TrEMBL record:
This is DZF domain-containing protein. GO terms for molecular function: DNA binding; double-stranded RNA binding. Keywords: Activator, DNA-binding, Nucleus, Transcription, Transcription regulation. Residues 21-371 form the DZF domain. The keyword DNA-binding applies. It comes from the Eukaryota. Gene3D superfamilies: 1.10.1410.40, Beta Polymerase, domain 2. Residues 1-20, 360-388 are annotated as: Disordered. InterPro entries: DZF_dom, DZF_dom_C, DZF_dom_N, ILF2, NT_sf. SUPFAM superfamilies: Nucleotidyltransferase. The keyword Hydrolase does not apply. It comes from Tetranychus urticae (Two-spotted spider mite). GO terms for biological process: positive regulation of DNA-templated transcription.
């Protein structure tokens, strides 16, 4: 018999008054125990080729100087207009602005080519009334047209705010709306933005602050850009949000037993190894969210999404071990096989994609289960025998 609170001989159960409870476990991570698993040989040629391929892909994914210049100009002008409205609103009384913050991949320096969009969070002193947000977008366009008489801009309402778009070069700034904390208790979903959207926009500010303080490293930025592209191209990884990718990349580069940064090629492999090992599966300790009191980063993923991420990473990791499979994973060569759903051949080795370990029950199964439960509840209970 084990005492209360003590582990058993397998180390994974605690006994409490309610019984035994399974404890979350970290996935196996070889970079945390490198001393116990020394390398037999140093594959310098393979590592060098992978590093060069990652750098080549990063160069392809980096926005051109012209795109960056157009976007920087529009962001600075839009931010100037909003800050002027905050200081001196004049006749504009639809809403009052507290402050403006730059967020997202533009602020972090991890933008992808072809996505000429920057994000700002506009924190209002007043309640985030939907009509007022639309009026603010129109006002910003009017002020921009006064500043740049030869330019044409337009405003489009989007979920959570509005976009300011330059008709000349396609650059766009997305203004996401938030409000000061005292207003949260007064939100009416019928006329205001929802609390969930407002909280998400405030969280984005915390994410940028953490990134600038902890993850502002060149290796991390390159890895983030490449991983975002990989997640966009393989459906099984599409559930990974930009914030998850940011934290995962930072963890892979910096978090290890000897406090030394991992090189780019090893960090890329480590990301796939962690995902394939189940870092985002139920029962895993996962990776703590640095901006949410250490809650698991994958807490918002469904069981199907968690399984798809693990399954896809396992397939990609096996392909990474053979020949030049990394070129297809990185997008340097076309994926003619559909490697995450079909068999593929690498150096005479056939790689079959992993199978799903979790499937949602069909509606018929759910109906049968419900009927069985109802029948069990309606079944008359046998009378207890009368003592003689």
């Amino acid at each position: 018999m084990h005492e209360k609170g003590r582990r058993n001989n397998r180390g994974n159960f605690h006994r409490h008054s309610g019984g035994y409870h399974n404890l979350p476990r970290p996935p196996f991570d070889i970079y945390m125990v490198e001393d116990y698993f020394p390398k037999v040989s140093s594959p310098k040629e393979i590592d060098s080729a992978l590093t060069q391929a990652i750098l080549k892909r990063n160069s392809d994914l980096t926005p051109s100087p012209e795109e960056q210049t157009n976007l920087v100009n529009l962001v600075s002008k839009t931010q100037m207009v909003l800050e002027n409205l905050a200081l001196c609103p004049g006749t504009f009384d639809a809403c009052l602005i507290e402050e403006v913050r730059c967020i997202g991949s533009f602020k972090k320096g991890t933008m992808l080519a072809g996505r000429n969009l920057a994000d700002l969070v506009v924190i209002l002193k007043t309640l985030p009334v939907l009509e007022a947000i639309k009026s603010l977008g129109v006002k910003v366009v009017d002020e921009l047209m006064k500043m740049e008489s030869g330019m044409v801009f337009r405003s489009e309402v989007v979920d959570g705010g509005f976009d300011i778009i330059s008709q000349m070069n396609g650059a766009a700034v997305r203004c996401l709306i938030a409000t000061i904390p005292p207003n949260m208790r007064k939100i009416d979903p019928s006329i205001h933005l929802s609390i969930k959207i407002l909280q998400r926009h405030m969280a984005a500010i915390r994410h940028v602050r953490w990134f600038e303080e902890s993850a502002n490293l060149t290796t991390v930025k390159v890895l983030i850009r490449v991983l975002r592209d990989v997640c966009n191209r393989f459906e099984g990884l599409s559930a990974l949000s930009p914030w998850m990718i940011d934290v995962l990349a930072h963890y892979s580069v910096t978090f290890r037993n000897p406090q030394q940064l991992l090189p780019l090629n090893s960090a890329f492999k480590r990301v796939l190894q962690l995902l394939a090992g189940g870092v985002f599966l139920p029962g895993s300790t996962g990776i703590p969210d640095p901006c949410e009191n250490g809650n698991p980063l994958h807490a918002g993923l469904t069981l199907v999404q968690q399984d798809a991420i693990c399954m896809t990473a396992q397939t990609l990791l096996r392909i990474l071990c053979y020949g030049e499979g990394y070129k297809v994973i990185l997008g340097l060569e076309p994926d003619v096989y559909g490697i995450t759903v079909n068999m593929s051949v690498w150096d005479s080795v056939v790689v079959a994609p992993s199978n799903a370990a979790f499937e949602l029950p069909s509606k018929e199964d759910e109906t049968e289960t419900e009927m069985t439960e109802v029948q069990a509840e309606n079944k008359p209970k046998s009378a207890s025998p009368t003592p003689t």
